[in-house]
Please model this.
Amino acid sequence: MQHYEIELRGLQSKVRLVLLSDLHCKSFGKDNARLLAKVEAQSPDAICLAGDMIDRNADAEEVQKFLDFVKALRKIAPVFFSPGNHELGYMASDELLLDRIEKSGAAVFNDSYADVILAGQPLRIGGTMGHGFAFGRTEEEFAASPEYKFLKEFENTDLPKVCLAHMPDTFIFNGAYSMWNIDLVLSGHTHGGLIRMPFVGGLYAPMQGWFPKYDSGSFRLGDNMQMIITAGMAGHGIIPRVNNLPEIAVIDLVPGEENAQ
Model:
Protein backbone atom coordinates (compact mmCIF):
# COMPACT_ATOMS: atom_id res chain seq x y z
CA MET A 1 0.00 0.00 0.00
CA GLN A 2 1.44 3.36 -1.03
CA HIS A 3 -0.20 6.54 0.29
CA TYR A 4 -0.02 9.97 -1.33
CA GLU A 5 -1.46 13.36 -0.43
CA ILE A 6 -1.75 15.66 -3.42
CA GLU A 7 -2.78 19.31 -3.26
CA LEU A 8 -4.95 20.44 -6.17
CA ARG A 9 -5.91 23.96 -7.11
CA GLY A 10 -9.65 24.51 -7.20
CA LEU A 11 -10.38 21.62 -4.86
CA GLN A 12 -12.70 22.48 -1.98
CA SER A 13 -12.81 19.18 -0.09
CA LYS A 14 -10.85 15.95 0.27
CA VAL A 15 -11.33 13.18 -2.29
CA ARG A 16 -9.78 9.72 -1.92
CA LEU A 17 -8.80 7.69 -4.99
CA VAL A 18 -7.43 4.18 -5.20
CA LEU A 19 -5.18 3.60 -8.23
CA LEU A 20 -4.51 0.13 -9.67
CA SER A 21 -2.49 -0.69 -12.77
CA ASP A 22 -0.69 -3.54 -14.54
CA LEU A 23 -2.61 -6.45 -13.03
CA HIS A 24 -1.92 -8.50 -16.20
CA CYS A 25 -4.58 -11.13 -15.36
CA LYS A 26 -2.89 -11.88 -12.03
CA SER A 27 -5.19 -12.89 -9.17
CA PHE A 28 -4.74 -12.13 -5.48
CA GLY A 29 -6.88 -14.78 -3.85
CA LYS A 30 -9.88 -16.52 -5.39
CA ASP A 31 -11.71 -14.00 -7.57
CA ASN A 32 -9.19 -11.41 -6.35
CA ALA A 33 -10.84 -11.49 -2.92
CA ARG A 34 -7.71 -10.30 -1.07
CA LEU A 35 -7.22 -7.39 -3.45
CA LEU A 36 -10.88 -6.40 -3.23
CA ALA A 37 -10.74 -6.45 0.56
CA LYS A 38 -7.70 -4.19 0.63
CA VAL A 39 -9.32 -1.72 -1.78
CA GLU A 40 -12.57 -1.66 0.19
CA ALA A 41 -10.70 -1.08 3.45
CA GLN A 42 -9.44 2.25 2.06
CA SER A 43 -13.02 3.60 1.68
CA PRO A 44 -12.24 5.24 -1.68
CA ASP A 45 -14.49 7.80 -3.33
CA ALA A 46 -13.44 6.34 -6.70
CA ILE A 47 -11.23 3.58 -8.08
CA CYS A 48 -8.96 4.33 -11.06
CA LEU A 49 -7.67 1.54 -13.30
CA ALA A 50 -4.76 2.85 -15.36
CA GLY A 51 -4.42 0.08 -17.93
CA ASP A 52 -2.76 -3.27 -18.60
CA MET A 53 -5.23 -5.00 -16.32
CA ILE A 54 -5.24 -7.90 -18.80
CA ASP A 55 -2.59 -9.28 -21.17
CA ARG A 56 -2.73 -8.73 -24.91
CA ASN A 57 -2.95 -12.53 -25.32
CA ALA A 58 -5.48 -13.12 -22.52
CA ASP A 59 -7.95 -15.93 -23.05
CA ALA A 60 -11.72 -15.63 -22.69
CA GLU A 61 -11.71 -16.92 -19.11
CA GLU A 62 -9.08 -14.40 -18.02
CA VAL A 63 -10.99 -11.53 -19.60
CA GLN A 64 -14.21 -12.63 -17.91
CA LYS A 65 -12.42 -12.75 -14.55
CA PHE A 66 -11.34 -9.15 -15.08
CA LEU A 67 -14.87 -8.10 -16.01
CA ASP A 68 -16.13 -9.78 -12.83
CA PHE A 69 -13.42 -7.92 -10.91
CA VAL A 70 -14.69 -4.61 -12.33
CA LYS A 71 -18.22 -5.51 -11.24
CA ALA A 72 -16.97 -6.22 -7.73
CA LEU A 73 -15.00 -2.97 -7.59
CA ARG A 74 -18.09 -1.05 -8.70
CA LYS A 75 -19.88 -2.25 -5.56
CA ILE A 76 -17.21 -0.41 -3.57
CA ALA A 77 -17.03 2.90 -5.47
CA PRO A 78 -17.28 4.39 -8.98
CA VAL A 79 -14.68 2.86 -11.31
CA PHE A 80 -12.76 4.81 -13.95
CA PHE A 81 -10.81 2.81 -16.55
CA SER A 82 -8.36 3.89 -19.23
CA PRO A 83 -6.65 1.29 -21.45
CA GLY A 84 -2.99 0.41 -21.58
CA ASN A 85 -0.95 -0.98 -24.43
CA HIS A 86 -2.01 -4.55 -23.58
CA GLU A 87 -5.72 -3.76 -23.80
CA LEU A 88 -5.13 -2.04 -27.13
CA GLY A 89 -3.18 -5.09 -28.32
CA TYR A 90 -5.99 -7.40 -27.22
CA MET A 91 -8.51 -5.24 -29.09
CA ALA A 92 -6.89 -6.24 -32.38
CA SER A 93 -8.91 -9.45 -32.01
CA ASP A 94 -11.78 -8.14 -29.86
CA GLU A 95 -12.92 -4.63 -30.73
CA LEU A 96 -15.71 -4.81 -28.15
CA LEU A 97 -13.44 -5.06 -25.10
CA LEU A 98 -13.99 -1.48 -23.94
CA ASP A 99 -17.74 -1.83 -24.40
CA ARG A 100 -17.67 -4.95 -22.24
CA ILE A 101 -15.68 -3.17 -19.54
CA GLU A 102 -18.19 -0.32 -19.60
CA LYS A 103 -21.12 -2.75 -19.33
CA SER A 104 -19.40 -4.25 -16.29
CA GLY A 105 -19.76 -0.92 -14.52
CA ALA A 106 -16.67 1.17 -15.28
CA ALA A 107 -16.59 4.57 -16.92
CA VAL A 108 -14.17 4.03 -19.80
CA PHE A 109 -11.92 6.89 -20.93
CA ASN A 110 -10.08 6.42 -24.22
CA ASP A 111 -9.29 9.94 -25.42
CA SER A 112 -12.43 10.99 -23.58
CA TYR A 113 -13.50 12.49 -20.26
CA ALA A 114 -16.43 13.23 -17.97
CA ASP A 115 -17.21 15.85 -15.36
CA VAL A 116 -18.08 14.02 -12.15
CA ILE A 117 -18.86 14.74 -8.51
CA LEU A 118 -16.94 12.72 -5.91
CA ALA A 119 -17.51 13.28 -2.19
CA GLY A 120 -19.38 16.45 -3.13
CA GLN A 121 -16.42 17.77 -5.15
CA PRO A 122 -16.73 18.46 -8.91
CA LEU A 123 -13.80 17.08 -10.92
CA ARG A 124 -12.94 16.43 -14.54
CA ILE A 125 -11.66 12.86 -15.08
CA GLY A 126 -10.35 11.56 -18.40
CA GLY A 127 -7.87 9.22 -19.98
CA THR A 128 -5.59 8.67 -22.98
CA MET A 129 -3.10 6.11 -24.28
CA GLY A 130 -1.66 8.58 -26.77
CA HIS A 131 1.29 10.95 -26.46
CA GLY A 132 1.05 14.58 -25.43
CA PHE A 133 3.58 15.59 -28.10
CA ALA A 134 4.23 14.80 -31.75
CA PHE A 135 6.25 11.57 -31.10
CA GLY A 136 7.51 10.85 -34.61
CA ARG A 137 4.77 12.83 -36.34
CA THR A 138 4.73 16.28 -37.84
CA GLU A 139 3.10 18.96 -35.74
CA GLU A 140 0.26 19.03 -38.27
CA GLU A 141 -0.27 15.28 -37.90
CA PHE A 142 -0.20 15.58 -34.12
CA ALA A 143 -2.74 18.42 -34.18
CA ALA A 144 -5.11 16.16 -36.14
CA SER A 145 -4.71 13.20 -33.77
CA PRO A 146 -7.42 11.97 -31.36
CA GLU A 147 -5.18 12.52 -28.33
CA TYR A 148 -4.47 16.15 -29.27
CA LYS A 149 -8.16 16.89 -29.73
CA PHE A 150 -8.94 15.16 -26.44
CA LEU A 151 -6.26 17.04 -24.49
CA LYS A 152 -7.35 20.42 -25.90
CA GLU A 153 -10.92 19.79 -24.78
CA PHE A 154 -9.92 18.16 -21.50
CA GLU A 155 -7.81 21.08 -20.26
CA ASN A 156 -10.49 23.67 -21.08
CA THR A 157 -12.15 23.90 -17.67
CA ASP A 158 -11.69 25.52 -14.28
CA LEU A 159 -12.44 22.21 -12.56
CA PRO A 160 -9.55 20.23 -11.05
CA LYS A 161 -8.38 17.85 -13.78
CA VAL A 162 -7.22 14.24 -13.28
CA CYS A 163 -6.00 12.33 -16.34
CA LEU A 164 -5.37 8.59 -16.49
CA ALA A 165 -2.44 7.97 -18.84
CA HIS A 166 -1.11 4.42 -18.70
CA MET A 167 2.33 5.44 -19.95
CA PRO A 168 4.17 8.23 -18.12
CA ASP A 169 5.83 8.72 -21.54
CA THR A 170 2.67 10.59 -22.53
CA PHE A 171 3.91 13.66 -20.68
CA ILE A 172 7.49 13.19 -19.41
CA PHE A 173 9.26 13.45 -22.78
CA ASN A 174 9.88 16.52 -24.96
CA GLY A 175 8.56 18.83 -22.25
CA ALA A 176 5.01 17.69 -23.02
CA TYR A 177 4.01 18.44 -19.43
CA SER A 178 4.48 22.16 -20.14
CA MET A 179 2.09 22.06 -23.10
CA TRP A 180 -1.00 21.04 -21.15
CA ASN A 181 -2.92 22.54 -18.24
CA ILE A 182 -3.56 19.30 -16.34
CA ASP A 183 -3.38 19.12 -12.56
CA LEU A 184 -2.72 15.43 -11.95
CA VAL A 185 -1.76 12.47 -14.14
CA LEU A 186 -2.15 8.89 -12.92
CA SER A 187 0.13 6.38 -14.67
CA GLY A 188 1.52 2.84 -14.47
CA HIS A 189 3.38 0.89 -17.17
CA THR A 190 6.80 0.95 -15.48
CA HIS A 191 6.19 -1.94 -13.05
CA GLY A 192 8.26 0.09 -10.61
CA GLY A 193 11.37 -0.68 -12.61
CA LEU A 194 10.74 -4.43 -12.02
CA ILE A 195 13.92 -5.07 -10.01
CA ARG A 196 14.48 -2.47 -7.29
CA MET A 197 17.93 -1.96 -5.82
CA PRO A 198 18.68 -0.22 -2.51
CA PHE A 199 19.70 3.44 -2.92
CA VAL A 200 19.25 3.15 -6.69
CA GLY A 201 15.59 2.39 -7.42
CA GLY A 202 14.17 0.59 -10.42
CA LEU A 203 16.41 -1.21 -12.90
CA TYR A 204 14.49 -0.79 -16.16
CA ALA A 205 11.30 0.76 -17.54
CA PRO A 206 9.85 0.72 -21.07
CA MET A 207 10.88 3.74 -23.18
CA GLN A 208 13.01 5.15 -20.35
CA GLY A 209 15.54 2.32 -20.40
CA TRP A 210 18.00 1.47 -17.62
CA PHE A 211 17.75 3.14 -14.20
CA PRO A 212 14.64 5.15 -15.04
CA LYS A 213 14.01 8.44 -13.28
CA TYR A 214 10.25 7.99 -13.45
CA ASP A 215 9.81 4.45 -12.13
CA SER A 216 7.26 4.95 -9.37
CA GLY A 217 6.19 7.61 -6.92
CA SER A 218 5.01 11.21 -7.01
CA PHE A 219 6.56 13.76 -9.36
CA ARG A 220 6.09 17.44 -10.10
CA LEU A 221 6.49 18.21 -13.79
CA GLY A 222 7.01 21.87 -14.56
CA ASP A 223 4.87 24.51 -12.88
CA ASN A 224 1.42 22.94 -13.19
CA MET A 225 1.41 19.17 -13.54
CA GLN A 226 1.78 16.50 -10.88
CA MET A 227 2.13 12.81 -11.73
CA ILE A 228 1.74 9.64 -9.72
CA ILE A 229 3.23 6.47 -11.19
CA THR A 230 2.13 3.30 -9.47
CA ALA A 231 4.48 0.34 -9.44
CA GLY A 232 1.48 -1.82 -10.34
CA MET A 233 0.60 -5.36 -9.40
CA ALA A 234 2.39 -7.89 -11.64
CA GLY A 235 5.74 -8.62 -13.26
CA HIS A 236 6.58 -8.20 -16.94
CA GLY A 237 6.18 -11.43 -18.88
CA ILE A 238 8.63 -13.96 -17.48
CA ILE A 239 10.60 -11.27 -15.62
CA PRO A 240 9.67 -11.30 -11.90
CA ARG A 241 9.46 -8.40 -9.50
CA VAL A 242 12.42 -8.29 -7.10
CA ASN A 243 12.35 -6.13 -3.93
CA ASN A 244 9.23 -4.66 -5.50
CA LEU A 245 5.96 -5.58 -3.81
CA PRO A 246 2.66 -5.29 -5.70
CA GLU A 247 1.27 -1.84 -5.07
CA ILE A 248 -2.12 -0.32 -4.33
CA ALA A 249 -1.82 3.47 -4.54
CA VAL A 250 -4.10 5.41 -2.19
CA ILE A 251 -4.31 9.05 -3.20
CA ASP A 252 -5.87 11.73 -1.03
CA LEU A 253 -6.62 14.81 -3.08
CA VAL A 254 -6.75 17.83 -0.78
CA PRO A 255 -7.33 21.56 -1.36
CA GLY A 256 -4.28 23.59 -2.27
CA GLU A 257 -3.28 26.38 0.09
CA GLU A 258 -5.26 28.96 -1.87
CA ASN A 259 -8.38 26.81 -1.36
CA ALA A 260 -7.90 25.88 2.28
CA GLN A 261 -10.73 26.98 4.53
Observations:
- DSSP finds seven helices and 16 strands in the chain.
- Residues 67 and 103 are 9 Å apart (CA to CA).
- The chain has a mean pLDDT of 91.
- The longest strand covers residues 121-128.
